[in-house]
């Protein structure tokens, strides 16, 4: 089978297409999956560029979607021919015993999905939503589930809430679509008039160009008659968090899910305290939460937004596009 291996010390020029043995029959409790797609995330970018070091010749990619080709003994949840999607934390099935770190995350601590076949425990996958392409399904493992947990599990979104999403990456676009389908008003930020138009076409109620309005927290307050956003999907980190706190309503919830602007910085704690906001960090979610997401998506008519698709052999080009920040939605691999 074909696979991608990342040689140390990392970097896009150290991603190599290799031939590896196809795995044999799955063991008891395992399924064999022919992987057909993966989607790129910021976490994957940190891995392949060497910013988050991994073992030499690691197979990257946390997201994987495909078709079950064989089923081991004692597996009743899946059958040959089922469309499935991988779990970011395969050992976190449910509950509040949260994983810390990435030791068991595919593409980081263990081998990922940039390969054509895998044999893994059935508990490392869920069913894909009905009718989804493999590329669409692959966006759920990281970006889709992160948005779901931010809005539904932690944010407890309700119809009529105002949700603020930052930028046009995979999580933000997914959160926009999900929030609109659940009856929320959505305000989005972007740096481009072209992207502004696409956000409006997706259903955003208002879009703020943060280059033209660097104090965009005040712009959110103006759009909400001074109240602010009930939920903020914060993907930037220290460079955007002060404005997110400004934009968030009293008693509102800020889901801290990204570090695009860095790993540490100043926080206006007094404003956050006075407004009695909740700031909660999160990293993706559990298998049970992913199953809930899939059931919800089966009831919606919209699909994840895919910016571009690349064959597995062009993985370095895919990451170069992601690194340039010109994509709208998800960049995917197909194979």
Helical content stands at 25-40%
- Counted by DSSP, the helix tally is 10
**Rg to the nearest angstrom?**
20 Å
Q: What's the main sheet like? A: 7 strands, mixed
Q: What shape does the CA trace take?
A: globular
Q: What is the strand content?
A: 25-35%
Question: Total number of β-strand segments?
Answer: 15
Please trace the helix and strand order, writing H or E for each element: EEEHEEEEHHEHEHEHEHEHEHEHE
Distance between the termini: 11 Å
Mean pLDDT: 96
Q: Structural class, from secondary structure content?
A: alpha/beta
The low-confidence parts are none
Element layout with pairings:
Blueprint lengths: L1 E5 L8 E5 L10 E10 L2 H7 L16 E7 L11 E4 L30 E5 L3 E3 L6 H5 L1 H15 L7 E5 L3 H12 L3 E6 L2 H10 L3 E4 L6 H8 L5 E6 L6 H7 E9 L12 H6 L3 E4 L5 H11 L8 E6 L3 H10 L5 E5 L1
Parallel strand pairs: 8-9, 8-11, 9-10, 11-12, 12-13, 14-15
Antiparallel strand pairs: 1-2, 3-4, 3-6, 3-15, 4-5, 5-7
């Amino acid at each position: 089978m074909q696979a991608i291996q990342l040689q140390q010390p990392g970097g896009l020029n150290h991603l190599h297409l290799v031939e590896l043995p196809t795995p044999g029959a799955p063991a008891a409790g395992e399924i064999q999956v022919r992987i057909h797609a993966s989607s790129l995330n910021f976490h994957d970018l940190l891995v392949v560029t060497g910013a988050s070091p991994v073992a030499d010749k690691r197979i990257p990619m946390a997201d994987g979607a495909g078709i079950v080709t064989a089923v081991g003994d004692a597996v009743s949840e899946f059958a040959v021919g089922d469309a499935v999607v991988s779990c970011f934390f395969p050992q976190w099935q449910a509950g509040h015993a949260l994983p810390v770190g990435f030791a068991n995350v595919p593409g980081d601590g263990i081998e990922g999905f940039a390969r054509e076949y895998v044999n893994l425990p059935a508990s490392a996958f869920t069913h894909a939503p009905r009718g989804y392409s493999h590329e669409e399904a692959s966006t759920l493992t990281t970006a889709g589930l992160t948005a779901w947990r931010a809005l539904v599990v932690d944010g407890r979104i309700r119809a009529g809430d105002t949700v603020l999403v930052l930028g046009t990456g995979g999580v933000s676009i997914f959160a926009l679509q999900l929030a609109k389908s659940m009856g929320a008003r959505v305000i989005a930020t972007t740096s481009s008039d072209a992207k502004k138009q696409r956000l409006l076409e997706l259903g955003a109620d208002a879009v703020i160009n943060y280059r033209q309005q660097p104090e965009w927290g005040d712009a959110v307050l103006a759009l909400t008659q001074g109240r602010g956003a009930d939920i903020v999907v914060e993907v930037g980190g220290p460079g955007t968090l002060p404005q997110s706190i400004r934009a968030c309503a009293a008693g509102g919830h800020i889901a801290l899910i990204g570090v695009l602007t860095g790993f540490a910085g100043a926080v206006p704690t007094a404003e956050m305290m006075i407004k009695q906001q909740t700031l909660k960090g999160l990293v993706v979610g559990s298998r049970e939460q992913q199953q809930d997401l899939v059931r919800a998506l089966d009831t919606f008519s919209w699909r994840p937004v895919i910016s571009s698709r690349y064959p597995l052999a062009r993985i370095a080009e895919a990451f170069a596009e992601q690194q340039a920040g010109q994509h709208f939605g998800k960049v995917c691999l197909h194979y």
